[in-house]
Amino acid sequence: MIELKYFGHSTFLVTIGGKSLIFDPFISPNPLASNIEIDKIKTDYVLVSHGHEDHVFDVETIVTNNEATLVSNFEIVTWFQNKGVKNVWGMNHGGSKVFDFGKIKYVNAVHSSALPDGTNGGNPGGFVVESEHGTFYYAGDTALSYDMKLIGESFDVDFAILPIGDNFTMGITDALKAADFVGTDKIIGMHYDTFEPIIIDRVKVKREAEKSGKELILLNIGESISL
Asked: Residue limits of the Metallo-beta-lactamase domain (predicted)?
């Protein structure tokens, strides 16, 4: 069993076999997540898909509070090392690493990736996380791409965490195709409603998912689910 807790935007705390991973922490600047107490978040790992501020803003705080390990591409972990973050594991596209909770593969994403001060954030990515408790795909910010078919061919994906807000990333129509490509009927939506350009019609996207035979789960901020 894998437990997910949603903290808004693209931020999920995932618990696998007693270890916790938080993805793309952007909480304190998000007014929709004002009820989340960031200093109470406990995690062992912080995974960052790319360098944009709405994915890295709370990395330092959460890593420092928990003495957690930051996992991201080489450029992003180097940037944080220069800011004093000590526990890091740098990766790049196509590479895999076994951790104490399971195995991570850093996969392609189609997006941009400048860090908040304009530093090159490397190329954006997503993560496939394998464990004895299940396998899931966290896409990060991305467009639809045929590279996702390789994920479906290589992994037995139980669920996918996909952006659905459109404008800056895939919208629901392409996210449903992405789910087909990676071979899952279960989608956890992310990267929607935080800013005006990515506000969605929840009824409409749910209806579109149902027509495609997919389960689209839109968690409330602070809500947890076990999968």
From this structure: 8-191
- Taking residue 197's Cβ as centre, other Cβ atoms within 10 Å add up to 9
In the block, tokens 């991570």 appear at: 104
From the centroid of its chain, how far is CA 10? 6
Q: Give residue 226's identity as a one-letter amino acid code.
A: S
Dist. CA 123–CA 49, nearest whole Å: 9
pLDDT in tens, 120-179: 999 999 999 999 999 999 999 999 999 999 999 999 999 999 999 999 999 999 999 999
- What is the model's pLDDT at position 220? 97
The answer to whether 45 touches 68, Cβ cutoff 8 Å, is yes
How is residue 181 written in tokens? Answer: 């490509």
Q: What are phi and psi of 19, to 5 degrees?
A: -110, 150
Residue whose entry in the numeric block shows the structure tokens 């459109």? 166
Tokens for 73?
């591409």
Strands 103-108 vs 96-98: parallel, antiparallel or unpaired? antiparallel
Q: Answer whether 128's CB lies under 8 Å from 111's CB.
A: no
- Mean pLDDT (the chain, rounded): 97
Domains of the chain are 2-226 (3.60.15.10)
